[in-house]
Every structure is written in C-alpha cells, then in structure tokens.
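input
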Amino acid sequence: MNIYNTILAVACSLTITSAIAANINVNNENTKKSQANYLSMLGNAHLQHHPTFFDDIQYIKKAADEAKQLSKPSSNEHQLTRRLGKKKKKSKTTKSTKATENPKVAVPEVPPESPESPPESLLCDPDDVNLLDYPQWEAEKGYWIGEYTFMQGDGSPYVSTSWNYPYGHYKGFITGEVVGNSYRQRNMFLYPPQVSSMCGVENAVVGSGECGRHGNTKVFQADQSATTCSSNEVLGGDIEGPYIQGNFVLPTKTELVGQDNALLYQVFVPGDILGKTEDVLLQSQLTTITKGPDGQIYRTRTAQSFDAFVNVGSSTSASYYRERRVTQTEFYAGLESAIADYNIQAEDLCAWDSNNNPIANVTGSLDTCKDYLEQSFALGSE
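output
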C-alpha cells in the first residue's frame, strides 16, 4: 500500500543497511531450493495491518536513534552484520558488483572448487519458484471474509487515540492471488460506529461522519515476490533473516508447525539498539488453516505483541482474526451487508490508508472498493 510504505523494521543508518543488503545478496546468489523458504512473506504481509503497527515503528525508531548516538557507526555496522550472519553456513559465492563497490562490506572469500561443490545446473533461480508448491500459499488465494477482535494487554478491546472506532468486533474483506513466485493481497477493514459512551469522551472521527452514527473503512495491501531460494534441509522449513526495506532492518523467524497446516512467524527488535546481547521478541504470530466437514476452509490468526523497551516480555496486545474462504458472489453480498450494518458513508469507502490518511486521487464508493479488491486477480496479467 501506499499504506505499506511505512513497512515494519528497525531504523539503522543508510550505511549499515547498504552493507547488510549487499552482503545478503552475495550470500543468496548461490543458494539452492528449499521447502518453504518463502513463508516469511506471509508474516510480513499480515504484520503490517496490526493496529499498533505505526506506534511500534515510532518506538523502534526512537530507540535506534538513541543507540546510534551512543555508538560509532562503524562499530554498530560490524556488530549488526556479524549478528545477522551468525547462522549462515559458508558456501561457494561470487563477488557481486554491489559488494565490491562498497568498501565497508565484508564479502565472503570464494572457496576453491571441490568435488563436493554442486554443479551450476543445480543452483536455483528465484524466478522459477512456484509458491503454490507449498500448502500455506495455496490457502492465501481467493476471497476471504473475516471477523476480527483486537485487545489491549489487559484483555479489554483496544482503544486508538487516532481512529475513533471500536476494535472489539470489526470485519475484514480480503482478496489474494498467487502466481509463480509472486503474491498479491488487497484488504479492506470495516469498523462499526463508536459506542456512545466513548463519543462522550472524544467525538472526533476521520472523514465527515458523526461519532456513534457512522462507521468507517481502511485499506491495506501487499505485493511480494520471492527473491531468494535455498535447499538447506537442515533448516527443516525454519527461515531466519532480516527484513529489509529502505533504511530499516528487522530480524524475523518463520517456522512450519503442525501438519503442513500452521505457520509461526516471530519478529524481533535487534538487541544492539537496546543495549542487550540478544534480540528481543516484539511479536509472535500463529496462522492455522483448517477445513470443515463440508469443505469450508478457515484461516485463524492470532498475533501476540510484547513490550521490548520498558517492561520487557510483558504482553501489550493480542489480535484474534477468524476468516473463511467464500465465493465471489458471497464476498460482495457480505461486503454490502456490512457497509449497511455499520452505516458507512459512500465517501469513506476505501478512501483511508492504514495511517488514517486520505488516499490520493481516490473517491470513495462501493465501485472503488470493488476495483481495489479485484486488483489481486490481475497479478500475472499486467
């Protein structure tokens, strides 16, 4: 989303990010295919419509800025590069142009050719990856209707200081498509009118509606493609590594759990910026796919968030998302029904992004929402 431009990560200097990105490119150039090396993209996509996403980013940025003032960039760069690469096995690599252009990047030495080295024909190309080979990706396709609850650390419904709508019960309408090594998702969340008791405390709303009378909507999106591949069987489906975009870096870990029906995704704040020797857990997200006797597919997701700064380890929030796959007809009938139930004004339909900002060049309407949600299925034909 223009929405996703505020992507989750830990703020680092541009020098540090360039060094890490170049090093990762070198290490990944000669990796081979694996079972489920692309599942972390699912966690990344769903993480960013977590209601406290933006606030978490601000805390992390502040901590990173303070850490940079207390340490020399060169020292921090060395520590972060070494930490993110600590579990990687040495493998045959070729120096890339990016790596040699940056004198600060520690490029692995190219080991001599040996009989054990795999032939070039066995090295994988990310463009050849088919995400639908993995059951967890198959479950991302199609039309989904969701019932959502988001709670504060004490178990009560979350109260936002900038989005004056209830989080105890709200709805989501999600479309998803997978083609080759690429994934596209379009989300529309619908919120009911605020309860009258809360309007007595704060009656400001986003848009032209009235507190307690009108609901509202937000949209989120994800467009991702596999850029690396590996066949390291030792990982057994566990994926570790940094999530990098722009000037930010965030360590994540993804594990396949259960019987090919669940995915555990965890996000960490680097210990370096917190003055700790180990990374600190920020969120733990579990997604489980189930099927009813009638063939109905369900997707249940819970995300637990934790304080990584003051009361480290204590719970700060938790989400409970219950989704079911439906037909296109049922999807849009349900959407129109929810819009009416929540008394959402036409001008607020699909007009606001995840930070409550108006989306440029968009006029809210039901047709706007339909066009937006159908974008998922244009993947591969554009």
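quick obs: The chain has one domain: 2-87+125-378.
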